[in-house]
């Protein structure tokens, strides 16, 4: 005589989706652990060195390829989506004001890692109330997990040509997280890819970082250069960085599926003072203490004051000519001994002086940037 299972996993899965939504996740899907379809792409990516200085990719490749190695008893992965686009994103306004710092919209509010992991734990506790055998482990960008591959399998969206997970109704302004569980929940189906013949993200990328559909050479990506990369930013990428001092949103800004993407329901992800509407001069004037104070609870804090100053100085080199910027850079030169920072300050000063003497055009933003701003104003008027 076989025993009836004590838990109805089909209705448990439905409940998990409802609980997930009440905990602030906009979508919840379920996948198995097989990401073998992505093994070759990951190997090729690493072989080509597209990970740059992110050496953690080399250290734990097996775990990325075989998620069961992260949590031995895992049978399923509950994949979640949380929307982060702040209200009044002001993309175009910010990108055209060269004296203002542009910070990627995902980083204007609270650090998502902690917030989402806490919610995933709450979801697990709720499941435990109905399923005593549950063993679980939550992840948000915190471990070697191929989050796109898993989200794709769980039906959260497809992988867009910019390599991000994209959803027909929700666009791509969302974070991903996972709860590894040991219970045999029914699986969700992947959704069909809907990029079609569009290539907008590939052609708008200011540094040609999308080297092939679905493939980013991180070493060229402004997000990598401003956040992950230590030391000098290669000169060829400084001008295209414009006023972006932390992250980059361009490939998502041109995506037709972001035209009506939902804004966040999480008050913690709304832009906070002074990160939005921050002038380059103010950002550059911060002492280390001020930097730590203003970025408390934000993902930005992890880059530290030196990368912050490096990034801001590049943006100062790209800004319209200003006596105040020149004075701030000259003053910083006198009070810095770090050779890498000094090199960036000298570059920025030269660019400011060349602009004053019209050796380089006085035009504020590049033609590529003008095109982006037009697309944003037309395609995303609410967020422009
Ligand atoms: C390393 C990393 C980066 C690096 C490298 C990005 C990259 N695309 O690989 C850098 C610093 C550049 C970066 C930037 C950003 N990131 Co990031 N990043 C990660 C991280 C930690 C790992 C990604 C990874 O494994 N990359 C390695 C490559 C090989 O894997 P992959 O991108 O998943 O690629 C797979 C697919 O493309 C897939 N694939 C699917 N179909 C096809 C078809 C073909 C033909 C091929 C070849 C491949 C392929 O195969 C690949 C191998 O599995 C993830 C979190 C995580 N643990 O997954 C966040 C994550 C991807 N980042 C995120 C975000 C928000 C960003 C930024 C938007 C931040 C910003 N505004 O500045 C940018 C976007 C840049 C971009 N266009 O990718 C979110 C994305 C959410 C979403 N909607 O998808 C994630 C998931 C974090 C999170 N928990 O929410 N990031
Ligand atoms: S985030 Fe910016 S630099 Fe990176 S791939 Fe997208 S558009 Fe290119
Ligand atoms: S911009 Fe076009 S190609 Fe790129 S992700 Fe969006 S739909 Fe796909």
Account of the protein in words:
By secondary structure, the chain is an alpha+beta fold. It has 2 domains: 9-85 and 108-181, no CATH class; 215-383, no CATH class. The chain is 41% helix and 10% strand. It has 17 helices and 10 strands. The chain has helices spanning 9-22, 39-47, 56-59, 61-65, 91-96, 112-130, 147-153, 200-204, 222-227, 235-241, 250-253, 280-285, 288-294, 304-318, 323-334, 339-356, 367-379, and strands spanning 27-31, 76-83, 102-103, 136-139, 158-159, 165-166, 174-181, 210-212, 215-216, 244-246. The strands form 4 sheets. A 4-stranded antiparallel sheet has the order 1-2-7-4, sandwiched between helices. Strands 3-10 form a two-stranded parallel sheet. Strands 5-6 form a two-stranded antiparallel sheet. The radius of gyration is 22 Å and the shape is elongated. The model has no long low-confidence stretch (mean pLDDT 95). The structure holds cobalamin and iron/sulfur cluster (SF4) (2 copies). Residues 160-162, 166, 195, 198-201, 254-257 line the site of one iron/sulfur cluster. One iron/sulfur cluster is lined by residues 160-162, 166, 195, 198-201, 254-257.
